[in-house]
Design brief:
The chain has 463 residues and is an alpha/beta fold. The chain has helices at residues 6-14, 39-47, 78-94, 109-115, 147-156, 181-192, 207-210, 214-222, 238-244, 254-263, 310-316, 336-339, 342-352, 370-378, 381-387, 437-446; strands spanning 15-18, 24-27, 30-33, 58-61, 97-99, 124-127, 141-144, 158-161, 165-172, 200-205, 231-233, 276-281, 288-290, 298-300, 331-334, 362-365, 413-416, 431-434. α2 crosses α5 (147-156), α6 (181-192) packs parallel to α8 and α13 packs parallel to α16 (437-446).
Length: 463
């Protein structure tokens, strides 16, 4: 029997047929929907007189447009309100389960799938959202699709796809104290470039990846798309199984035992061949921060801004050869499908506990879901935040892409735990610096870019 990668094993099980042009009819197990990319697809379905083929395999949530304050009496712009209303109407019409605002399961689509046990090893998952790659952390083939493809899955539960090439990125060793999964993925993108993954599905492997929690792994796979990859995935193991056990929609009893037995087979064979292999050392990674206008423009937090992109430097108001340490910060955003989970809030709270927020910095801390919000309250995280001068907002995508009112003003600097720093991503003229929740916390306390290892008794800068 030919050796296979994890990606190939899952792909082969879901390939319905191969067409004459070499593309595949590819079966989809789980379809996530939100208010931004679904209205035209629903309209297309109706225009063609087609039913929603398998509504029981679809789950919808509201996340991109919704406000993160006052959700009991939401105030939204006309376009946002229309998209939210349309999603509600379409879900009722086609029999789709919807987790709307204030529903206890509401949240960012890529946060609620895993926390509810809807995301499981071996599945194929799609959503009209590029960061669907997040779910690959569980050993799934998960990727974003366009509106016409959303309609295709609604109508047939299948897609026409060309089989991507495979890449394996191995990170050996263990991350140093104060270095997080966000730093790891920013380091990889900075080293490889934003186009390195084009045409590939990437498997992340090695001791550094294995040592991460599920939430850390989700951060890695979430940003696989930022190196141009079709998606990223990590083979499931005991960390995966322990995370999923007992979750609301996870298998139970004999079904659980059978599921785990299957999930244990979802590994790349030892002699599996990849189209591309990359190897890195965890010891080389420090806390990272971006200086430019793409996620690959990253440097160690104590590094020097390179002379690489004059347009980006001009937009950011920065100079090549300078250090970012000490750069004044106006806003801090903690949240998004990259770093809006409970571990991210715990990380932030660990650093700010017993301290006070810098007076001249606006900080938005936005949980990724109602469950994360509830956990933060029950664990005392909200109390720690309030005592330090912070406020825990309500769930939503928020300032990651500024489709609601959470916009960074033009010319202002924001340290953001989200995934993209494109021009205008957080608002017209906004200047975004991507970083980890720890680095965000350090800036929130000091008012400027600060190495988080200098503020925490257990975190020490490298020599």
């Amino acid at each position: 029997m030919m050796s296979k990668s994890l990606f190939d094993k899952i792909w082969d099980l879901h390939e319905v047929s191969v067409l004459d042009d070499g593309s595949s009819v590819f079966y989809i197990d789980r379809h996530f929907l939100h208010e931004v990319t679904s209205p035209q697809a629903f309209a297309g379905l109706e225009a063609r007189g087609l039913p929603f083929f398998r509504p029981e395999l679809a789950i919808a949530t509201m996340d991109h447009n919704i406000p993160t304050t006052g959700q009991m009496n939401p105030v939204m712009g006309a376009e946002s309100a229309l998209q939210v209303a349309r999603l509600r109407e379409n879900c009722e019409k086609f029999g789709i389960e919807l987790y709307g605002m204030n529903h206890p399961r509401n949240g960012i689509v890529h946060v609620i799938g895993p926390e509810l046990g809807l995301t499981r090893p071996g599945l194929t998952i799609v959503c009209g959202d590029s960061h669907t790659s997040t779910h690959g952390a569980f050993g799934t083939i998960a990727f974003g699709i366009g509106t016409s493809e959303v309609e295709m899955v609604m109508a047939s539960q299948c897609l026409i796809q060309r089989r991507p090439k495979t890449m394996r990125i191995t990170v050996n060793g263990i991350l140093k104290e104060g270095v997080t999964s966000k730093d790891l993925i920013l380091y990889l993108i900075a080293k490889l470039g934003t186009g390195a993954g084009t045409g590939y599905f990437v498997e992340f492997a090695g001791q550094a990846i294995r040592s991460l929690s599920m939430e850390g792994r989700m951060t890695i796979c979430n940003m696989a798309i930022e190196m141009g990859a079709r998606g990223g995935l990590i083979a499931p193991d005991e960390v995966t199984f322990n995370y999923l056990k007992g979750r609301e929609f996870s298998p139970a009893g004999d079904d659980w035992e059978n599921a785990v037995s299957y999930w244990k087979t979802l590994q790349s064979d030892e002699d599996a061949l990849f189209d591309c292999e990359k190897i890195f050392e965890a010891a080389d990674i420090a806390p990272m921060i971006t200086w430019g206008t793409n996620p690959g423009a990253g440097i160690p937090i104590d590094g020097i801004i390179p002379d690489q992109d004059s347009k980006a430097l001009s937009y950011m108001g920065l100079k090549a050869g300078d250090s970012l340490l000490g750069q004044k910060i106006d806003y801090v955003f903690v949240g998004s499908c990259t770093n809006g989970r409970i571990e991210d809030l715990r990380e932030f709270a660990t650093l700010v506990k017993g301290h006070k927020k810098a007076a001249d910095v606006t900080v938005w801390i936005v949980p990724g879901s109602k469950q994360v919000e509830k956990q933060a309250q029950e664990e005392g995280i909200e109390t720690i935040l309030n005592e330090a001068g912070f406020e825990l907002r309500q769930p939503g995508c928020s300032a990651c892409l500024a489709m609601n009112d959470d916009k960074i003003p033009s010319g202002k600097y924001c340290i953001s735990t989200s995934n993209r720093n494109f021009e205008g991503r957080q608002g017209p003229g906004a200047r975004t610096l991507l970083a980890s929740p720890l680095t965000a916390a350090a800036a929130a306390l000091t008012g400027h870019i600060t190495d988080p290892r200098t503020l925490h008794p257990h975190l020490h800068p490298h020599p």
